[in-house]
Amino acid sequence: MNQILQPPNPFRLFGTKIIRFEKIDSTNAYAKSIAEEAEEGTVILADEQSAGRGRFARSWISEPGKNLLFSIILKPRLPADRIALLSLAAGIAVALAIEEVSGLKTDCKWPNDILIDGKKVCGILAESSFARSAPISLIIGIGLNVNQLNFPKELQSTASSISLIAGKVFDRDLILNSILEQLELLYLRIGKDESDYIIQSFKARCAMLGNDVTIQSGNESIQGIASDIDRNGALMITTTKGIRKVLAGDVTFKRR
Ligand code: BTN
């Protein structure tokens, strides 16, 4: 049974309608199924997912009732080359919210993982949904490890939660509200073509820049130094054969 929550601030667009589930297969899947008729800014929130999905067809595992699992439905009327900025903006919004509630220093790993002390605390999955009669919808799915203290053995060296790192319990609704507030502000900036602000905010938190990276992009593995992020959100890699521009991929990096 789902419950529709009242908005935290009636003048806001994001989170004006929050549809909350105790358990669902995937908030992204549900958001996609209602995207055509849903209003922009609608949020699907769940305590538990039975088929949470991640990037590259991986699954997203999260202890029930401990973390934030939600998707936001966007209907951006933006030139195609600005769409990639939305998922960078989601990463910045999460980073700002974590910094606000915990004071912890975050690291945005391109395109949109959030790390703290080198461990992943948040993953973001952006998926588009095409409809016959409506503008394209973009679903931004966010999985943020908030209060989970125990992780499966195979994830312990790479994953963590805000609570595990800060040593205290956090209010999930407060963090959700802060993420939605920050993301809405960044979304308005993208609409006004203030792309440079988004790129600069992301780069200011991106420890990967200047380091050796290997990127799996489609069937190709690209090695080089992550040298920059261009104004459309693409990662620039300096390789032995010149500069490569990568729009999507899975990155591993070593600090120099
Ligand atoms: C990744 O790092 O691979 C992205 C993970 C995204 C997980 C979130 S949890 C809420 C939303 N619903 C899903 O099924 N996936 C996203």
Hey, roughly how much beta strand do the residues contain?
Answer: 25-35%
Helical fraction equals 10-25%
> Cα-atom Rg, whole angstroms?
18 Å
Work out the helix count: 5
| End-to-end C-alpha gap | 50 Å
Instruction: Compute the number of strand runs.
Output: 13
Q: Would you tell me the structural class of the helices and strands?
A: alpha+beta
Oligomer: single chain
Bound molecules: biotin
Main features:
five-stranded antiparallel beta sheet, 32% strand, globular
How does this model look, in words?
Helix 2 (84-102) packs antiparallel against helix 4 and helix 2 packs across helix 5. The relative contact order is 0.15. The protein starts with a strand and ends with a strand. Helix content is 24%, strand content 32%. It has 256 residues and is an alpha+beta fold. The chain has an 8-stranded mixed sheet, with helices on both faces. Strands 12-11-10-9-13 form a 5-stranded antiparallel sheet, with no helix packed on it. The model has no long low-confidence stretch (mean pLDDT 92). It has 5 helices and 13 strands. A hairpin with a 3-residue loop joins strand 5 and strand 6. It binds biotin. Biotin (BTN) is lined by residues 26-28, 49, 52-55, 58, 60, 69-71, 113, 123-125, 141-143.
Provide the fold topology.
Layout: E1 2-5, E2 18-24, H1 27-34, E3 43-49, E4 68-74, H2 84-102, E5 107-109, E6 113-116, E7 119-129, E8 137-144, H3 162-166, H4 172-191, H5 195-204, E9 212-217, E10 220-229, E11 235-239, E12 242-246, E13 250-254
Parallel strand pairs: 2-3
Antiparallel strand pairs: 1-2, 3-4, 4-8, 5-6, 6-7, 7-8, 9-10, 9-13, 10-11, 11-12
Helix pairs in contact: 2-4, 2-5
